[in-house]
Amino acid sequence: MEGKDVLCGLAMASVIGGAIYFSDRVNSSERQGDTASPPSVTVSTRRTSAEIRNPSREEIISRIPEQFPVIGSPFLTEELRDQMDVFRQLGALDGEKALDYLMAKSEGANSQTAMGLPHAMGFAFSGWMESDLKGALAAFEGFLIGGGGTFAHPGANMFKWKGKKFYSGMF
Amino acid sequence: MVNEVTRKAAELDPETALKFIEENNFQSMPLSSVLPAYVEGVIKHSGEAVDWLGIADDLKSLSPSEGILWKPNQMPGRRMLVSEWAKVDPGAALEWYVSDAEIELHQPEGAVAVGRILGGIPPEKQPQAVRWMEQVRDQGGWDDQLVASYGKTLAIRATSLGPDVERVVKWMADENGRYEFVVGLIQPPARLPIQDLENPIFQFDRSELINLVHAADLPAEKRSDLLQRIESRNSSR
After folding, report:
1. For B133-151, what is each residue's pLDDT tens digit?
2. Within an 8 Å CB–CB cutoff, is residue B71 touching chain A?
3. For residue A14, is pLDDT > 90?
4. How far apart are the CA of A5 and the nearest CA of chain B, in angstroms?
5. Is any Cβ of chain A less than 8 angstroms from the Cβ of B66?
6. pLDDT tens digits, residue range A34-53?
């Protein structure tokens, strides 16, 4: 498989050189004058509440990426959670049909989309749960299947939706 | 993906989530991500009225009874629980954690774990966190790794330093430890998703770092080196 992990872009800032400065303790007035912060360069990907409240199906579908994000850790960054939110929105709108749609979209697709399918479906389940918790969890029964050996227990790395099995290699 | 489903279930209805986890009979590996997700969801569900000890009981009831068993300090979800609880009530959270997870503060492993939790406590609760550290210190102390780990976590998460941190650095017995503690805060690992290398952003300002250098009570040579590092950092902005 040629799936790539989605990495959060972290840049290392290294600073070299400069003047030598020797000082005693800094008093509070100097502290105040010294605290002017540089302009922020962090770009927020979070959408406004108005944008995410009631998006149309067409809008949601248009935002589903061709390559589903592949999640390599159970602990999601806010940025990655934002990326996955489109799948939650689809699940909230279409319930079971959202999972059918994602399953169909991944068939014959590249390996990254296939690898990202379980997580995309997990977020679709999450959205479905918002409108029908018990129904979504009932549908989730049988979604997790063991893969044999070390991964023989449900929840390991094999999934099944409406008779079709697929593999993630991740939780 | 199982953890996302669990987290949402717990956020919507903790009892249903509990039943979901029990009925799926998850083993150790899936549980290691499912339990923190359960904790996260229940906390979100509870809003201002979190039953911290109730969640702790849930975690115990969900732990596997066969197969790979966890030591008390390895139980998934417990770290998430204490970290979130400590943001609200550091003293109670840490008392519970040290006792319930059988943490040995004189051992590096336990000291590092607790130092990480302390460093993640928000600035407004840092005085309480440091007061707890002081009580522990008075009662017999800890491995210095606790303070080192506290400093490393501050470097990643904190947005300011202050008198509380200046007190803590003095509690490290080892001179090199105090030096490394300050170095880590002068040049912390980048933590912003996007950082402009031409104009790097540092979360701690010059004055509070200088105060920390002096609080560390180091020999002149090491003190000068640290002050130079601060000025080098600032002059490159």
Report:
1. 999 988 888 888 999 999 9
2. no
3. no
4. 15
5. no
6. 333 333 333 344 454 544 56
Quick one: how far is CA A161 from the chain centroid? Answer: 20
Size of interface A-B (CB pairs under 8 A): 165
Q: How many domains does chain A have?
A: 1
- The answer to the question of residue A35 being in a domain is yes
* Residue A3 maps to a domain: no
Q: Which amino acid is at A26?
A: V
Query: Order of strands, edge to edge, in the sheet holding A164-167?
Result: A144-145, A158-161, A164-167
Strand partners, A148: A151
On whether residue A163 sits in a domain, the answer given is yes
Closest CA in chain A for residue B166: A25
In whole angstroms, what is the distance from residue B196 CA to residue B210 CA? 24
For A12, which residue in chain B has the nearest alpha carbon?
Answer: B190
Per-residue CA distances from B227 to B113, B147, B183, B190 (Å): 30, 21, 10, 20
A19 is a domain residue: no
**Residue A107 structural domain:** 28-167
Nearest chain A CA: its distance from B6 CA (Å): 9
Which residue intervals of B63-193 are DSSP H helices? 78-88, 90-100, 108-119, 126-138, 145-157, 163-170, 175-186
Question: Assign residue B140 a region: left if phi > 0, alpha if psi is -120 to 50, beta otherwise?
Answer: left
The predicted complex's ipTM stands at 0.72
